[in-house]
Batch of 2 targets.
Target 1
Amino acid sequence: MPDVTIEAADGGSFSAYVSGTGSAGMVVIQEIFGVNDVMRGLTDYWASKGYTAICPDLFWRQEPGIQISDKTDEHWKKAFALYQGFSETKGTEDLIQTVKFLRGMRSLKKVGAIGYCLGGKLAYLMATRSDVDAAVGYYGVGIDKSLDEASAITKPLLLHIAGKDGFVPPEAQAQVKAALSKNPLVEIETYPDDDHAFARTGGQHYSEASATRANARTEAFFAEHLKG
């Protein structure tokens, strides 16, 4: 399916990659490298699991159509520059518009959200600010800075935390766990020996064992809360 166009709440529009025709929806939230081959592959993956999956371009306000990788220093510099200029508030608003668009495409029973890295933090914000039926965040960066929103979580949330995450220090991880552990809707899976992006196939810190464990738990989580 070709990319679709979604109207932003504050004017303008952005593109999104769509895959699948399942009866439940999945919003796939990008890393700092844009809607690249990795994210399109993940979107196709969730489509293969029976979801209508969609991955919106969240960097469109800075530069539409970003598709870079984690393979060169030049791309890393560009990715971090885009990340520094990114508005989490606007990005979350775009994700909420994406959920509305997805629900309007066909009669979907439920819609979930899954994000990685930058998207991991945004998946948390979708759990606090949107009406998604379930959310999963992989190694989200900066969740500790938004824990004042934790009381707004009313739907299931699963977080995968890398114990040796170079972007999320131990004290930040401890704050997240302490703030969220009392909410029965929140599950936290920790991977003590893994670094950031341990589930990114082909990445520097990829761990096949941990990625397999995390992905299996995620699949079961969404099957329970979106298809059950």
Target 2
Amino acid sequence: MSQPAIRTVLGDVPPAELGVCDAHNHLFLASPRLAGRELDDPEAAVAEARAFARLGGAAVVQWTPFGMGRRAGRLAEVSRAAGVHVVAATGLHQAGHYAPALLERVGGRLADLFVAELTRGLHTDDEPDGPTGPARAGLIKVAGAPHGLDAHARRVMTAAAEAHHRTGAPVAVHLEGGTAALDAVDLLCGTLGVPRDRVVLGHVGRSPDPRVPRQAADTGAYLAFDGPARAHHATDARLLGTLAALVGAGHTGQILLGTDTTRPVARASGGEGPGMPHLLSVLRPSLERELGPEVAEAAFVANPARAFAVPW
């Protein structure tokens, strides 16, 4: 069996070489739901990633899936220019992010599409029948619906599970408002057989129910706490308390941290927000001070190195 590796857009790297990781972010992103707020500027992406790298950042996991303006042909350029590893995603988001015609074209062969992007290369123009580039995906992105799993979510998760079984790739789940975490785990792991430590639950800290992170952690999945620079979110104010409770319950090894930048204005470079640098200039020192350097090292280095490693 091959040794585990993390599949980046510049090739596979040993987990020990991933380094300090932003485990959930977007360098490029476009959707009809976000009209006028696209992340589509390669220079801005490089500037933001460089600002992260200057503080010790070494890797960013881009959760932008197929068909959402991920700029597959530019990701390698950004990685080289910024000096950071970039892990790209295949998969699909909620149905509302796509033209119905595109969903109809790919609907019957989602698993094959995901496997092709994981093993051969990303479709450079987000066309399922178009050419693929040398950059390959390293994870499969799926999404729940608000407070549950609709038919689209179940169809995409079923295809993602098949693609996981054919490749070993991790499955990253967008939880709308932090809801439906247990539904997603029940389907992916209980019904479809994806190992629980191959699932990453995103936005789990955004649920208004403070019991949800602990319930999600008890499933054995990884938990991605993302968007910590959004100071107007109540979940951000209680982030350290939530992490402290998880650490106290023995879940240190499941915690991941990311920025989840979805608008240009949220970036540190050219925007108004603290962006990616916030993870290392503010959050990591706070985590070290409140919970200890070992917890911070686990969340930023050791855990992502395990979560995204696959014996390709």
